[in-house]
Amino acid sequence: MEDKLLSLRRRRPQPDRDDKILCGLNALAACAMARAARLLDRPEWETRATALVDRILEVFWDGSRLAHALASGDLQRQGFLSDAAALLLAVTMLREGNEGLSAVMKDLAGLVSSFRRDGRWIESESADFQAVEASWFDHPVPSPSALAKLALARATVLEGGIPEEAPWLRPHQADFHNIAALFARGYFHRIHSPLLIPWAKLPANSIQVHDANESDCYAGACRPLNLEGIGR
Q1: What predicted TM-score, i.e. pTM, was given to this entire model?
Q2: Cβ distance 192 to 217 under 8 Å?
Q3: Engineered SS bond to 142: which of 13, 70, 176, 206, CB 3.0-4.6 Å?
């Protein structure tokens, strides 16, 4: 029966293929590859994430504006928080091992911050339509506001600053936001070292900060770096 139905369907005009390339979804894919590379000890995946981020920047970023989509060779240039925050998050991950991304990280952090209005996050706005407030609900991907909070917090830590604390939100609805809240409150290992330490030697909740001195900072306390006892 299925073969018969499929045969009949193929005789009809076929729908056009949706060939849009979305900036934010590709940035999230780069985040996933970078994260998987570290957790599964597959450094080649981080290399692929780097190549993907380089391509996103080449296509969508002009140094001040980040386009949303590419379709049939044309860029949709209206800015969206979800795109900017996802790309900044990917850049912060790769920045841990590549100081050459420092400048673009700062520029993207400024772009993400520009979507904040009186303590609220705006997903997008245009001259001919009212501003659209960003969602805080994680479904099925991290909410734009959660991506923004985590990405900005990571960028701040990588630049040697103290991130702004985030309130707790509802479990199972804003779990990604609550990861950002954990990070901002210091419940991640900030590993300071002059050289990048192999990720397999570190807890999953770690961020590496390039520093002349070695230390492990967690929950507001810093101690000498001890890879044998870290995370215990």
Answers
A1: 0.91
A2: yes
A3: 176
Q: Look at residue 178 and give its three-state secondary structure.
A: helix
Strand-pair category, 189-193 with 206-210: parallel
- Letter string b/e over residues 170-184, b meaning 16 or more CB atoms within 10 A of that residue's CB: eeeebebbbbbbbbb
**Which one, of 155, 151, 205, lies nearest residue 180 by Cα?**
151
**pLDDT, one tens digit for every residue, the chain (232 residues):** 788 888 888 888 888 777 899 999 999 999 999 999 999 999 999 999 999 999 999 999 999 999 999 998 899 999 999 999 999 999 999 999 999 999 999 999 999 999 998 889 999 987 767 788 999 898 888 999 999 999 999 999 999 999 998 899 999 899 999 999 999 999 999 999 999 999 999 999 999 999 999 999 999 899 999 887 675 5
* Separation of alpha carbons 107 and 126, rounded Å: 21
Q: Report the DSSP pairing between strands 215-218 and 221-223.
A: antiparallel
Round to whole Å and give the CA distance between 123 and 40.
33
Please, what is the Cα angle at 210 between 186 and 111, to 5 degrees? Answer: 70
Tokens (6 digits) for 93: 């991950």
Burial class of residue 129 in the structure, from the number of CB atoms within 10 Å of its CB (0-12 exposed, 13-18 middle, 19+ buried): exposed
Facing residues of 88 across strands?
none
Name all domains of the chain by residue range, CATH numbers in brackets. 19-185 (1.50.10.10), 189-232 (no CATH)
Q: Is 131:117 a contact under the CB 8 Å cutoff?
A: yes
